[in-house]
TrEMBL record, chains A, B:
<dbReference type="GO" id="GO:0016034">
    <property type="term" value="F:maleylacetoacetate isomerase activity"/>
</dbReference>
<keyword id="KW-0808">Transferase</keyword>
<dbReference type="GO" id="GO:0006749">
    <property type="term" value="P:glutathione metabolic process"/>
</dbReference>
<dbReference type="GO" id="GO:0006559">
    <property type="term" value="P:L-phenylalanine catabolic process"/>
</dbReference>
<dbReference type="Pfam" id="PF13417">
    <property type="entry name" value="GST_N_3"/>
</dbReference>
<dbReference type="InterPro" id="IPR054416">
    <property type="entry name" value="GST_UstS-like_C"/>
</dbReference>
<dbReference type="InterPro" id="IPR040079">
    <property type="entry name" value="Glutathione_S-Trfase"/>
</dbReference>
<protein>
    <submittedName>
        <fullName>Glutathione S-transferase</fullName>
    </submittedName>
</protein>
<dbReference type="InterPro" id="IPR036282">
    <property type="entry name" value="Glutathione-S-Trfase_C_sf"/>
</dbReference>
<dbReference type="InterPro" id="IPR004045">
    <property type="entry name" value="Glutathione_S-Trfase_N"/>
</dbReference>
<dbReference type="InterPro" id="IPR010987">
    <property type="entry name" value="Glutathione-S-Trfase_C-like"/>
</dbReference>
<dbReference type="Pfam" id="PF22041">
    <property type="entry name" value="GST_C_7"/>
</dbReference>
<feature type="domain" description="GST N-terminal">
    <location>
        <begin position="8"/>
        <end position="84"/>
    </location>
</feature>
<feature type="domain" description="GST C-terminal">
    <location>
        <begin position="88"/>
        <end position="236"/>
    </location>
</feature>
<dbReference type="GO" id="GO:0004364">
    <property type="term" value="F:glutathione transferase activity"/>
</dbReference>
<dbReference type="InterPro" id="IPR036249">
    <property type="entry name" value="Thioredoxin-like_sf"/>
</dbReference>
């Protein structure tokens, strides 16, 4: 049986930047589970019809098809209970906050900073789709939305509680990483893959945590292809 | 044996607004533990000399003296393990984030909004001390720091992940409240006691949570004296 993860790819099939897919790749590594990835583009909606879904990640595990990153973490804890990701009832309730903190506090500031880099990293056949859906969401053009000054300032403020916590412990989940770390690190991988923007000062406890996260699971994050690894692809 | 909590008071001895003390009062009620409060003023430093500390809350429980709100929650779980507040290792690590989120994301926006109301609620003998220490911390006068427009906008942005979570569950800790709820609710009680500022729209899931929190433990929060209950004390 092969475990398969549908994973968003960009201008290169090995350029994988989806923050939601990164959560799942870290979670699978945390559990020590093998898998293959299936490269997918934003506009390959038909390929996910079997899952009744139109976005990645989609995990196919034997007969099981699971969508949405948080639900996949939940599924993994249920079927592979060793090395808990979300943990028991009280721990799981708290983990859920980090999903929202990542998506509603951290990612928006990053998005304003890296949006033009992100567009550049997306496969050409997906760019019209990306522009149309995001411009509708933001209520303005990507070029108008793009503002590293505003984005970095927003991110800096949003990171304040994380900075406090990581000044006292190595991981969000304590001495060892688990779901809260992976939920938050997804957006950092997203930005790292498509952009060279320095989101966090290297004197920040958040920076030291990012370095630890990159090293985890045999350097899973650090070894991932970045846009700067593709000759001629990045001219910022 | 009487359990005693040193609790900050304002212009009236029954006006109790410390966000850190509110965390502990909710935690004691959660555990079903009786206690008496000892009213304390910012400048009564000598009265806490026995605890080698200069701030409240200070909990005296038989021979034990415990300071700092988070440490008191920890102590209560250790000595009275029924009805866990922080919970096991993984849950506890995650709870710690909410301490920082309350203190570094939520309270600063509230502070800018209610600072002049807060000064007005403080006992006259404490006001010089309060002004001096806070103006040093803010790097400007209280009057310059005071900006409900900026404060409410900052708070609105900081509440975004909490809003997402509470759109899906009754409490931060799930179906029932525990440490994460109490850690976050402290600052909301602080603002409620000293000010009539509407921090959150009544259509916001955070507002519905605040109402639930006020009703908990026999209306512990709702029945607390507010500045508006003191005749002539509040003329905003």
């Amino acid at each position: 049986m092969t475990r398969r993860l549908y994973d968003l790819c960009g201008i290169d099939e090995e350029l994988r930047f989806s923050p939601y897919c990164w959560r799942v790749k870290y979670a699978l590594a945390h559990k020590g589970l093998d898998y293959e990835t299936q490269p997918w583009h934003f506009t390959d909606k038909q390929e996910l019809a079997f899952a009744n879904h139109d976005k990645v990640p989609v995990l196919v595990d034997g007969d099981e098809v699971v969508t949405e990153s948080y639900e996949i973490l939940h599924y993994l804890d249920r079927v592979y209970p060793d090395r808990p990701l979300l943990g028991d009832t009280q721990a799981e309730a708290r983990a859920r906050f980090f999903k929202f903190y990542a998506e509603r506090s951290l990612a928006p500031g990053m998005m304003r900073t890296i949006i033009m880099d992100l567009l550049n990293a997306i496969h050409p056949k997906d760019r019209d789709y990306f522009r149309e859906t995001r411009e509708k969401r933001f209520g303005r053009t990507l070029e108008e939305f793009h503002s590293p000054a505003k984005g970095l300032s927003q991110l800096d403020q949003a990171l304040e509680p994380l900075r406090g916590l990581l000044g006292e412990s190595n991981f969000v989940d304590g001495d060892a990483p688990a779901a809260a770390d992976y939920l938050l690190f997804g957006p950092f991988m997203w930005a790292r893959i498509v952009s060279t923007a320095d989101l966090v000062s290297n004197a920040d406890p958040v920076y030291a945590w990012m370095e630890r996260m990159l090293d985890l699971h045999g350097g899973l994050g650090r070894s991932a292809m970045r846009i700067v690894d593709i000759e001629g692809a990045y001219d910022a």
